[in-house]
Amino acid sequence: MKIRGKAWIFGDDIDTDAIIPGKYLRTTDMQVFADHVLEGIDPGFAGNVGRGDIIVAGMNFGCGSSREQAVLAIKHAGVACVVAASFARIFFRNAINIGLPIIETGTTIPCKEGDVVEINIEDGTVTAGGCEYTGTKMPDFLLEILMDGGLVAHRKKQSAKERFGRRSGAYSKSSILSDKDHLNLIVDLTAPEKSDKVLDVATGNGFLAFEFAKRVSGANVTGCDMTRDMLLVAESMQRGRGIDNLDFRVMDAESLGFEDESFDIVSCRFAFHHFTNPGKAVSEMARVCKTGGKIVLVDGLSSEDAAKSEYHNRIEQLRDPSHVRLYSEPELAGMLRGAGLKIIHARNWDADFYFDEWIKIADPGEEIDREVRRMMADSIGDDKTGLRVRFDDDEGRLLFTYSTVILVAEKE
Fold it and tell me: What's the rounded Cα separation, in Å, for the pair 184 and 13?
């Protein structure tokens, strides 16, 4: 993970009360923390710091109390990393747990405010003023937690890997994931050239990657996913289909191991609701996409009605604990625009999904099966989920309409 940003300079012994004064601790509003970060030292800092900027400090940064709000304030202000000669131990621990990148250098980095600083989190190096400084390389287990976005996100990803690994075969048989009409519509809207290089992020069993591989025979398609067992199924399917212009790699969507502007098309289908940091995933997809290239985001939708969305996502999380959140179409479009992308196509596609097939894919156990079935049935009267849950007329089976959106955006 490499970070490049403008430096903000602070000295020794910056304590947590200076980072976020105690009078603001009565709230849980992250924006309040961000609006008042470091005002005890620089009252103008919060209003002038830019997203992706870097704090460069001296000894004992984050000393004082154990309040984790100090880390939250810095992170939500948009600071990409804190470089310090040394950190207070509790601040260091909180930064790892919350997912704020930090590097301890052992000495103060000589640079001026506004200088561009480059950081490599994996190897602990800092480049400033044309000189490279070697900090303390973080132990692998701490680095993994940090790269995953903090302890909660790390545990959620580990749970997702285990669950997807265990159910990889079931996903390969899903009617909605393998739907040819849906896959062809996505590729048609993207309109790839034969020579286009394609990356399918969180590819799972590779259904969309296979379809792109048919259309771009003159170039390679790469499918990446963080769950190795899913890719083993994909590779087995690839051999059976005789596709040779496609390779699969184990990789996290929120930390793509490719150079900037490596691909003409970057896609992600039915995985976005599992990402612990969707903004970072979109940013990574945009980073590895060439200027003039296309980003394709496909996912299920949740209602724009807040109450229905909350009820729907509660059901999804009960069925599958690796679920983070399904978003509304305006929310997804907003994330793409926030990454500087221009949406050129937005196409809705609905499919009926029988409850028994849907619950079987996740296989949460009989007790959760019964509870989710009850919640879905209870939603029928006033459409609490926004999914038009109903019983079919023929056999009385429970089904619902799964609404999805295909968003194709251009990197200008």
Answer: 59
**DSSP 3-state assignment of 164?**
helix
Tokens of 72: 């939250």
Segment 147-155 mean pLDDT: 76
Point out which residues pair with 409 in neighbouring strands: 295, 343
> Across the strands, what pairs with 249?
224
Give the CA dihedral 112, 116, 121, 127, nearest 10 degrees.
-70
* Residue at which a domain ends, from 128, 147, 166: 147
User: From CA 392, how far away is CA 150, in angstroms rounded?
Assistant: 44
Residue 20 to residues 45, 51, 70, 271, 320: CA-CA distances in angstroms?
12, 18, 6, 36, 37
Work out how many domains the chain is built from and give that number. Answer: 2
Its domain, for residue 11, covers: 2-147
Q: What is the pLDDT of residues 232-270, one digit of tens each?
A: 989 999 999 999 999 999 998 988 989 999 999 999 999
Report the CATH number at residue 79. 3.20.19.10
Element (H or E) spanning 406, and its range?
Answer: strand 398-411
Q: Do 224 and 313 lie in a common domain?
A: yes
Strand ranges across the sheet with 125-128? 102-104, 81-84, 54-57, 2-9, 116-120, 125-128, 131-134
CATH code: domain of residue 279: 3.40.50.150
pTM attached to this predicted model: 0.72
**169/121 same-domain check:** no
Q: Which of 118, 147, 176 is a domain's end point?
A: 147
Task: Check if the beta carbon of residue 245 is closer than 8 Å to that of residue 212.
Answer: no
HSE, CB side, 13 Å, CA atoms: give it for residue 191.
7
The Cα 275–Cα 295 span in angstroms is: 17
Query: Are residue 350 and residue 210 in the same domain, yes or no?
Result: yes
